[in-house]
Structures are given as C-alpha cells and as structure tokens.
Design brief:
With about 70 residues, the protein is an all-beta fold. Helices cover about 0% and strands about 35% of the residues. The protein has one domain.
Length: about 70
C-alpha cells in the first residue's frame, strides 16, 4: 500500500484554516489503497484513502505527537 508523508507546518493562526483535532488516529478510514502519515511521528492519520478524495486545505493535528500536518 503506498504511503505518503504529510508536511508538518506551524500551528495556523486562529480562524484562518480548518484544523481537525481527533482524540485518536487514524482521523479517517476509507476503502482505497493509500495511507497518509504524520510528518512528525509517522502515525497513520488518513488510512486507506482513494486518490480521488480531495482533502486539500485542511490541517490535521496528530493525536500522538501534536504536529500540525497538511497534504
């Protein structure tokens, strides 16, 4: 299964971007063939997604290390 490492970014300023802050990983599970992992600790944040799914513009806060990630 292909795995892509997400890019760690600084915490966005309040009210500038949508930040998903789950209590546990993965944040999302699909039925595709691609995993996206945290750029800080490599935890799987987006599991088994299809390439067609568009999740651009969102920020994902890793529940394991606290890093803010984007695609």
């Amino acid at each position: 299964m292909p795995t892509f490492t997400m890019r760690v970014i600084p915490e966005p300023a309040p009210n500038t971007r949508a930040v998903l802050m789950p209590e546990k990983a993965p944040i999302m599970k699909g039925t595709g063939d691609t995993n996206h992992v945290c750029g800080g600790c490599r935890a799987v944040l987006l599991e088994s997604l299809s390439p067609e799914i568009q999740l651009v513009g969102l920020v994902y806060r890793c529940p394991q290390c606290g890093a803010h990630n984007e695609l």
